[in-house]
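Q: My collaborator sent me two sequences in one message, no labels, and asked for predicted structures for both. Can we handle them in order? The first one she listed is below.
A: Yes, handling them in the order given. First sequence, followed by its structure tokens:
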Amino acid sequence: MRAPVLNLLIASLAGANLAGTSLAQAQTAAPAPQTAAVSPDAIKQREQELEAARARQKSAEEAQAKLKAEITALGQDRTQLNQQLIETAAGVRAVETKIDEAEARLRALNGREQQMRASLDLRRAHIVEVLAALQRAGRRTPPALLVRPEDALQSLRTAMLLGAVVPELRGRAEKIAGELGELVALRKTIAIERDQLASDRDKVHNDQTRLTALVDERQRQQAAREKDLDAENSRAIALSRQVGDLQGLIAKMEQDLQSAAKAAEKAAEAAKQAEAKAAASANSGAKSGPGAFKDKSRTTPAIAFASAKGLLPLPVNGNKIRDFGGSDGVGGVQKGISLATKPGSQVTTPCDGWVVYAGPFRSYGQLLILNAGGGYHVLIAGMERISVNIGQFVLTGEPVATMGSTSQVASILATNASQPVLYVEFRKDGTPIDPGPWWAANEGEKVRG
């Protein structure tokens, strides 16, 4: 009788699911009761569940009303609205990073757990021998069945105390107990990581809801200022179909489209002022840094684009898969950088500037072009949805677009990349330049708007 019991013990130790899972499966497998009548307790439980659902719905409606009132109040103060937009967008991107890191840790932990379970399973016969010897030494009947590593660990520890007179046996038992203890601790760590991941996902969902409301308010104000906004956007799309390359598109927009032309004019004026300010600062020994970007009410770039080297943040969380000057995947040379992102990632502007184009363009998918002044343009492509309009001035770190679920850029699709990819290109006087010197080297140096 003892051998079958030990076999059951070992099988559950190395290969069984958690007790809760086994119980759930047993409950699922059990046939449904054949009674048609519903008990009073079941009716009461359903009423409680319905009441809880109503309470959650009411709470969500109240939170939505509160958020709407808060956004409306913020809308009266452009500085506060900009501040909230940038801070919320930064918060969304920070939580996106935490989620990526947590998922990576969970993959490693789950892999380690599988390795440990496989190792214990391969040494099942050895564990049977040790447990049997310890049980004989302790002259105690083993438990009928153990379904959790915690139970097996407790059984081993108890038996080890009784079998202390056999040093070799004790050493083998301690090794097994150590591995079981590590497996128990590993499962606890995995549970904690999963709880934190669920919490982070809830937070990013709430932050994205808030960000959507803030963006809608910003665009409502923009639409109020630009009465003919829809007509301008339609004309921009029509003009984009008349040109064959990016430089032609930029020239066409800034020449023929009223709002883009005004934006280009403001950018030129701002560039002259910024250059004069930079020259004065250089003469006085002062240096431009992230502090120059603190004024959220500004309507022109904080510093000249040429002076922003080493300060700008990447516009999206992701991994660089192509760099400036490398292969573009279709036989050409990469004129910008490509960042692989997660679906739905938030895109923020890397610099201050005026929007001179926002819409679809040939093989680039959705394309956003910013005039940063001083002859510099920043092109961002591959998004699924853009949330700014032509002529609008945007601040560094401000949310401007959202990624889709797959790549929108033709050159990326040609290499069978299924994940979304953001393409970023810097231009000076129409010529693509290496954006590398402009990116912040570390988190502390990034401009926050």
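Q: And the one she listed second?
A: Here it is, processed independently of the first:
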Amino acid sequence: MEMVRIGILGVAGVMIALQFKTVKPEISLYIGFAVCIVIFTFSVNGMMQILSKMEELQKYISGSDSYFALLFKAVGITYISEFCASICKDAGYGAVAGQIEIFGKLTVLFMGMPVLMAVIENISSIAG
């Protein structure tokens, strides 16, 4: 049901923004940005619910604190970079959006390096 509300909000916001696009393009951009912020707050609330469920799951898996934290940071980084890149694309700044996406990908890659190093160390210790 929540997805239906978000979908209706998004479509309604786009339809309203389209009405202003030819007359006042800056108002159209502001309306699009406001709709994005509202949808973003719904997403953050959803992430909080997922976080509480993951904390329950964490009780059953020992030593997983750092991995869950890393996972949530990576998801947060990808979501924020995608959100910002979409806003920039909508405003007509595709090059800036591309740079935001690349920086987000590199940040997630950099965050995953300790996990990759731990996997490589485990494989090398098993291999002898």
